[in-house]
Specification:
The protein is mainly alpha-helical. It has a single domain, classed as Methane Monooxygenase Hydroxylase, Chain G, domain 1 (Up-down Bundle), CATH 1.20.58.530. The chain has 5 helices and 3 strands. A 3-stranded antiparallel sheet has the order 1-2-3, covered by helices on one side. Helix 3 crosses helix 4. The longest helix has 14 residues. The protein is extended, with a radius of gyration of 18 Å. InterPro entries: P-loop_NTPase.
Length: about 110
């Protein structure tokens, strides 16, 4: 992900020895890899044409397909509750209604998303 930027800096003669970019390729593969990538799963769900192809049904399919990937984590009641409480603390007066069955997490180089 960062290689293009580093190449551009090198071509411009900038010193990049100070920058050691994170290796985020594993996370990228989680999205783009063949049959087991998030994008492919979403595409397959959309192509079914069913109205139930999003929300819990989509996340159930993602959980089944992506669960072995080190950067994927299925939503669980405790982690989703903690996330909702933290967001509500930041946004006073704003109610967030989220079901853990409709949540998953990607472990990105910058932190969990």
């Amino acid at each position: 992900m960062f290689q293009r930027e580093l190449d551009a800096y090198s071509q411009e003669g900038l010193d990049i020895t100070f920058f050691d970019p994170p290796d985020n390729w594993s996370c990228v593969e989680l999205f783009i890899s063949g049959q087991a990538g998030i994008i492919r799963v979403i595409q397959d769900q959309v192509n079914t044409g069913r109205q139930s192809a999003d929300g819990e049904q989509l996340v159930t399919t993602l959980n089944r397909t992506c669960k072995v990937h080190k950067d994927y984590q299925a939503g669980d009641p405790a982690s989703v509750r903690n996330l909702v409480l933290a967001k509500q603390e930041k946004c006073k007066g704003f109610k967030i209604d989220v079901r853990y069955q409709e949540c998953f997490q990607v472990n990105h180089y910058a932190g969990p998303v």
